[in-house]
Amino acid sequence: MIDIESIVKNAKNAFIKTMTLDNSIKNQALFNIAKKIEQNKKRIFEANQRDVENAKTLLVEGTINQAAFERLKINEAKLRDLIKGLDDLIKLDDPVNKTIWQKELDDNLILKKISCPIGVIGVIFEARPDCFIQIASLIIKSGNCGILKGGSEAMNTNTLFSLLVDEALDETKDFPKNAISLVYSREDINKMLSYDEYINLIIPRGSNKLVKYIKENTKIPVLGHSSGICHIFTDENADFNHTLDIILDAKTQYPSACNAVETLLIHKNYPYFENLKNALIEAGVEIDENPIQWDIEYGAKKLSIKLVDSVETAIEHINKYGSGHTDAIISNNKENIEKFMNYVDSSSVFSNCSTRFSDGFRYGFGAEVGISTNKTHARGPVGLDGLTIYKYKLYGKNDTVAPYATGEKVFKHKYI
Amino acid sequence: MIDIESIVKNAKNAFIKTMTLDNSIKNQALFNIAKKIEQNKKRIFEANQRDVENAKTLLVEGTINQAAFERLKINEAKLRDLIKGLDDLIKLDDPVNKTIWQKELDDNLILKKISCPIGVIGVIFEARPDCFIQIASLIIKSGNCGILKGGSEAMNTNTLFSLLVDEALDETKDFPKNAISLVYSREDINKMLSYDEYINLIIPRGSNKLVKYIKENTKIPVLGHSSGICHIFTDENADFNHTLDIILDAKTQYPSACNAVETLLIHKNYPYFENLKNALIEAGVEIDENPIQWDIEYGAKKLSIKLVDSVETAIEHINKYGSGHTDAIISNNKENIEKFMNYVDSSSVFSNCSTRFSDGFRYGFGAEVGISTNKTHARGPVGLDGLTIYKYKLYGKNDTVAPYATGEKVFKHKYI
């Protein structure tokens, strides 16, 4: 029986220490985690094998699907990627304690806006157990504390990863205890959601249903993406080959990704409409020109297609049916491109490239904690920056507001 | 009977237009609002007089208190401040469409992070009707749309302000309709809170109870401050006169402000403890050295006082009982100052100055939509920046992710 209250309170106490940790200590912690993974490959594979064996039954029963089953597996390549990811994070600048700006309010009265970590972050993720290491390392590098809930199918792997992280942090000089915890069950989530005084942010990485459930059951701010209804609009002057390349990449390179395209909007005067349709069908993409609704996330090699009158109609359709995730235009008309990029109200808007670029690694963030379709705090792929906030530091020399209130003194408000 | 659904949906439609408005159009709108106020002073005073007359009954009944009654009144000075505030906002840079950074993901594949408005913002404010103009103008300048709910005591004044804003926006070329709306009742709030698909942010400016109620009854992100339990820690080496000046300013200059000090923590070796206490009492400040709890927001000329062993004990007390609003240290010891500024987990941390500086005007933001004790999105005094978010724009030249996935191509990730 896990005592969630203790975990949550301990995390909050640990935060007072992690929030001011030197970058060198945080990097040492990440280095130690990489070393632990390297040294314990055999144990990791064994633990993972137990999860995979158990999951075979779940697969037969239909409790999990083939894709989830595949994501559960940890192999040499995945561990190599994890270690590479940790190395990348070590190389990134400390996101914390950066001066965003400073200004003189008056002589000897200096206001500084300084980046800092958020606090205790709860992350709920699905079957893929390598997530545990990725998320823990982002939380460590950003000076936060984390309470992570992995998929129950990956319990053996997650438990071992959690143990290895504990050991690595224990062996890191001056790194506080209880910064990263693993919890297990649905009930643990429900308890977590009630600790809004201790947990500052919840990041659900999972189905629509999960995100919705969490938003409905907590006062804690939630960072997540609802769904990935991504569009590509093909303008009337778009080239045929490039259009086909981009759409095939956006739909077939990894159809179950949230940044895969779901709806094609094609200008009614596009001359290659039939050719495009045939080429897509030939590539194994199912086409629906009369979908029951326009906000379907197929997650499979299937596309809704609609003819539209103009770039304006395309924008209107996207703002109405899209999920604010990633939308692209293929066009040679610069004016239409700018219109699209400005008026489509999505976290990522692209011109002449695949929607699949919408990703923290591809954006150069080192890693991502998820993709946000929120309109506040962090939007789009969320890396280290999205795990920080700021505080104001005001350095005075025995200053009072009274003389400014009476007009005896006047603020300078000069950036320095 | 107000149709909240129409108001909310119309605001969302208006946002697609306000989000890309030129700064010149937004400034013209602010100029027109200032002009309307200037031209309609007499009507404003008349409307306000009706509210004041009605409020006299409420005051006698005890429905509102004297402070709320005073805040209701609009006089020449308040209108002058409003017009000055509009002028200041006009002079500020457009917070929208700023390039936060841009980088080459690869040749001819340019990623830009661009500031943009959030969307539809619901603001619930208390008796002070000048708030309507201040909040509306911040929302206009930041390219958002707003649904504002004022105090029912100020209904006549708010209704006239809303009418004048409507007229000013109507007379602004290319400014969309329905960008700013006023709603009236508690029931309107409850309806608003259910439109999480249309409203992107709720800002309650009012009592603790109101903020709590709103957080419990909506899935919309809420930006607000819980309470203002501000502390001043007086270190052992602090000078007597400066300490007294700062504390008097922080407690008595405007005792009901949320940034007024509520608790003094005094180093046990501070030699002037008794002198300080006597001087405060002489200045009419009531002292409680044995309060029933340490998180009381007096909002009056009253202070809790506690002796502490060290700066570390002070920090611990503040992180335990504070509300993360504003906390200050008075000290000549640089090491203790830095320790305090780094380890106190509050939105504003001050050294050797009054907590009352914690304010959007004093920070040079032109105006503030409120002070946030949130740990995400915006913290401390919130001005125009807190009403913006960002979007990613990716400009490609027919790029697909496949060659990066296979390793055929490698990202550059170079800031430009």
Short description:
The structure is a homodimer of 416-residue chains. Helices cover 41% and strands 22% of the residues of chain A.
Q: What percentage of residues of chain A falls in helices of 4 or more residues? A: 40-55%
**CATH topology of the largest domain in chain A, anyone?**
Aldehyde Dehydrogenase, Chain A, domain 1
CATH superfamily of the largest domain in chain A: Aldehyde Dehydrogenase, Chain A, domain 1
Helix and strand element order of chain A? HHHHHEEEHEHEHEHEHEHEEHEHEEEEHE
Tally of individual helices of chain A: 14
Q: What portion of residues of chain A belong to β-strands?
A: 15-25%
Distance between the termini of chain A: 54 Å
- Catalogue the unreliable spans of chain A: none
* The number of domains of chain A: 2
What average pLDDT do the residues of chain A reach? 94
Oligomer: homodimer
Chains forming the largest contact: A-B, 72 and 72 residues
